[in-house]
Amino acid sequence: MVRNTYSELKRCWTKKFSDSDKENIEFEINELLGMALGIDCRNPLFAEKLIEVADEQIEKRFEKLAARRMNGEPLQYILGEWEFYGLPFKVGEGVLIPRQDTETVVDVAIRKLSDRHGIIVTDLCSGSGCIGIALEKNLYCEKVVCVEKSDKAVEYLRQNVRLNGSEAEVLHGDIFREDVINAVPMSDLIVCNPPYITAEDMQTLQREVTFEPESALFGGEDGLDYYRDITRIYKDKLKNGGLLMFEIGIGQEDEVMRILIQHGFTNVRTRADLLGVNRCVFGEKADKIKLCTDVMSV
To answer: pLDDT, tens digit, for every residue of 88-143?
Structure first.
């Protein structure tokens, strides 16, 4: 029997993926075939390998990987690792996948705090740890604390701390539990990518997203529960002048900004991602001494 080359195998599965309306088809096929071959698809050796006749065991391995993707399993889970802000992060069932959208939050934090030294950062609902670890690698931090409730997610978080040579402290527990709140240090920056999908939107999620943990997605009936509770509780864990910073869902900027303003935050702003979608809301904790001085001078 005449066997296909890897290039022909790739072409065959590209057609199957096209019929299933998957996006980024060539990218995904390359990643999966590279995984089956044990060669990074960005390596020149990968292109050279495509002209060879496919090994039967490697072909079976690739077809199993491709079938998992065709069934809707996220590419990131299949690969087991994904890049965020130029850093590698282990991911899999039970942890939210790091997304480029979230890099907007990291960008804003770096711009706001790049000239400060010895800062303390707390990353709530940390998941894989991508935000906290990326900030640690790009800011002059004295301490970074990553807080995560899920048993599955916290294992990935610990792996990623080791993988990236990070000194971030992992705090395993519910961010709304009193002992966890007490363990969080007074911070210069509290950052969070909370669950923010509404009850209505949870009913129409893309199939790939349904593989991710519901606890990392569902933000209550209107998607704003975590913003309300985190702002109310954690404003007291910020130093005067400290920043509270959130990732937000599409169209949530006005409501989240209103929540921060209602709790006394100043200079409340929003920032857009690369597609022009408002993706980050942040505000400064008012300096009480300065406020008193301003009031007295009026």
So the answer is: 999 999 999 999 999 999 999 999 999 999 999 999 999 999 999 999 999 999 99
Residue written as token pair 């169209």: 251
Alpha helix stretches (DSSP H) within 177-287 = 178-183, 199-202, 207-210, 225-234, 253-262
| Beta-carbon contacts of residue 124 (< 8 Å; ≥ 6 apart) | 147, 175, 190, 191, 192, 194, 230, 234
Q: How far apart are CA 204 and CA 264, in angstroms?
A: 35
- Positive/negative CA dihedral, 80, 42, 275, 244: positive
Q: Do 171 and 184 contact (CB within 8 A), yes or no?
A: yes
Read off the pLDDT of residues 25-62 as tens digits, 9 standing for 90 and up. Answer: 899 999 999 999 999 999 999 999 899 999 999 999 99
**Quick one: DSSP state of residue 198?**
-
Cβ(194)–Cβ(124) below 8 Å: yes
Q: Which of 124, 115, 148 is nearest to 234 (CA)?
A: 124
- pLDDT tens digits, 221-255: 999 999 999 999 999 999 999 999 999 999 999 99
- What is the distance between the alpha carbons of residues 273 and 127, in angstroms, rounded to a whole number? 21
| Residues recorded for the chain | 298
Instruction: Read off the tokens for 297.
Output: 């001078």
